[in-house]
Design goal:
The chain is an alpha/beta fold and about 375 residues long. It has eleven helices and nine strands.
């Protein structure tokens, strides 16, 4: 047999490990989700869950939320209970129809009470947490580990549930990291706010989180009489299958509503290659040519938005040509810059901080989980 695709191989490997280790319960997260997802090899799961649906992987799942919901409902199994986060009317109707066809008892979860402390930041996490509670509670009941359903009693969750919700962590989502290379006495002067948001809906959520997080940080600094001026920087990249004209407007608009305006936007390519594994995924020193045409497209969309114009459309999506490293600094405007590499961008930010002791930089890194992963690896070196 030929080698399976990357995600199918990972799923196969996971099943092998779970069997060998004789795990008591496996929580499987789908790849893209849907009827052709590798995790559908499990024909009779205990329970299924669908989180908030948005415009993502449209080239495979469809161009409307209804079509996407139809694909996502492919994880429903005959008679197996399922839960969903609240959805917009169109996708919710599709989920209900698919559930009815398969005799699936489908329930919509309500967000947990905001008085509960969650380990993950953001209002949307109260919906995600409710979905987690519903899935765990159902599994415990169906396997005889518990007689109590916590679906309707979320105000009196057991201590183990509360501990799990309060200590949960997820790298690259609403994660705040102070730059470790800055001198200890100035450790808060360069802070990275990392969120791998890469859909219009998650970009809005990301922008809201960032706006609230930096306000809290500024209030804290104000209370200790810090006279430093905070400046916001956006470090951005997204994969070419995404449409920047859909991603950047909600980010810019939501930040603006909260009084946040980026001093500078930096566009960079990712470091790693994502169709390879191990050391072969890293570029070699001979890679002296860097194709920045996509980053230049992103910059054009941002500049158009900044000037109140419509983002890039399909007719001129390839208006920029390939640039090499030496040209990277040439494409710089007052509000944005294209750089040839992520390390170059980080060094630029560090230099800005070192040259100006009265400035504090708050850098939002968003648009791609790949970019965020590269960022975490690079600043730890």
């Amino acid at each position: 047999m030929p080698m399976p695709s990357y995600f199918r191989f990972l799923s196969l490997l996971a099943f092998k490990i779970f069997c060998e280790e004789q795990v008591e319960v496996a929580i499987l997260e789908v790849g893209l989700g849907g009827k052709f997802d590798a995790t559908n090899a499990v024909e009779k799961p205990m329970v299924c869950g669908i989180s908030s649906l948005g415009f993502d992987h449209m080239e495979i799942l469809g161009n409307t939320l209804g079509a996407i919901a139809g694909e996502k409902a492919g994880i429903f199994k005959q008679g197996v209970p399922a839960f969903t986060a609240p959805q917009l009317d169109e996708p919710m109707q599709v989920l209900k129809e698919k559930a009815s066809e398969l005799n699936v008892p489908l329930q919509v979860v309500s967000p947990l009470d905001k008085s509960l402390h969650l380990g993950l930041d953001g209002e949307h996490q109260y919906i995600n947490a409710a979905l987690a509670v519903a899935l765990c509670s159902t599994w415990l009941q169906k396997t005889g580990h518990s007689d109590i359903s916590y679906l309707e009693q979320t105000r009196s969750l057991p201590e183990t549930f509360l501990k799990g919700l309060s200590t949960a962590g997820l790298q690259g989502r609403a994660q705040i990291v102070a730059d470790p290379s800055i001198e200890p006495e100035r450790s808060g002067d360069l802070v990275f706010y990392l969120d791998g948001a890469h859909s219009p809906e998650s970009m809005e959520v990301c922008a809201k989180w960032f706006s609230v997080a930096i306000k809290e940080e500024d209030d804290k600094n104000l209370s200790i009489n810090s006279r430093k001026k905070s400046k916001q920087i956006l470090l951005f990249n997204c994969m070419p299958v995404r449409d920047p004209a859909l991603l950047l407007p909600p980010l810019m608009t939501t930040c603006s509503k909260h009084g946040v305006h980026f001093e500078k936007v930096l566009f960079v390519p990712n470091i790693s290659v994502y169709n390879k594994v191990g050391n072969s995924a890293l570029p070699t020193s001979s890679d002296h040519q860097v194709d920045l045409s996509w980053q230049l497209n992103l910059q054009t969309v941002w500049e158009n938005l900044s000037h109140g114009e419509r983002g890039l459309d399909s007719k001129n999506s390839n208006i920029r040509q390939t640039k090499d490293i030496t040209d990277a600094y040439d494409k710089s405007t007052e509000s944005s810059t294209v750089l040839a590499s992520l390390p170059m961008a980080i060094n630029l930010l560090r230099e800005m901080v070192r040259k100006n002791e009265s400035t504090r930089l708050q850098v939002l890194v968003a648009g791609s989980l790949h970019l965020v992963g590269d960022m975490l690896k690079t600043i730890k070196k």
